[in-house]
Amino acid sequence: MVRFDFETVVKETKYLVLKTIGETLIDRFDDATEDVVQEVYFRVFKSLEKGGFDGRSKISTWIYTIAKNESLRMNEKRLREEEKAKRYLQKNKYDLFQSDGNNSLLKDDWIESLLGTIPEVYRQTLRLYLSGKSMDEIASELQIKQGTVKSRLFRTKEWIRKTLPGVKNEFQES
């Protein structure tokens, strides 16, 4: 069994891991990159400690596969969370319409009224994000840094959680 220095393994594979995650992770989930990197190296470390790397391939190939799989796993998790959020919004939309007795409101009107409650500094970023634009596209269009886009989206999510009753518990993983 070959012994590996974990620090050396990380130094030699960090660019490969980041590149793999960047290519595999859906653009709108870029904020999860650090979590994926951490999970990749956690799995690598745990497996190396147990002798899980058998040496039939290069260690970089093995780590590439782990990075690819962890990125795909994060994509699946985030897509499930989005679906859960959509179901929650649809359910609450229905409840709001029933309690108001006003069934004439359209989905777009309801979303626009919800967006109208978000502070202006975050509203434009959220609209672009919800329209399916990537972090780079949003940053370019608003002429701000990509980190600012991520920060604004994070703060928007926090604002929504604090402002809309019951949202925080509904979005948390069970």
From TrEMBL:
InterPro entries per record: RNA_pol_sigma-70-like (IPR039425), RNA_pol_sigma-70_dom (IPR014284), RNA_pol_sigma70_r2 (IPR007627), RNA_pol_sigma70_r4_t2 (IPR013249), RNA_pol_sigma_r2 (IPR013325), RNA_pol_sigma_r3/r4-like (IPR013324), WH-like_DNA-bd_sf (IPR036388)
Source superkingdom: Bacteria
Domain RNA polymerase sigma-70 region: 33-74
Biological process according to GO: DNA-templated transcription initiation
GO molecular function term, any single one: sigma factor activity
Cross-referenced Pfam families: Sigma70_r2, Sigma70_r4_2
Keyword terms: Sigma factor, Transcription, Transcription regulation
RNA polymerase sigma factor 70 region 4 type domain mapped to chain residues: 110-158
Similarity comment: Belongs to the sigma-70 factor family. ECF subfamily.
Protein name per its UniProtKB record: RNA polymerase sigma factor
Organism: Leptospira jelokensis
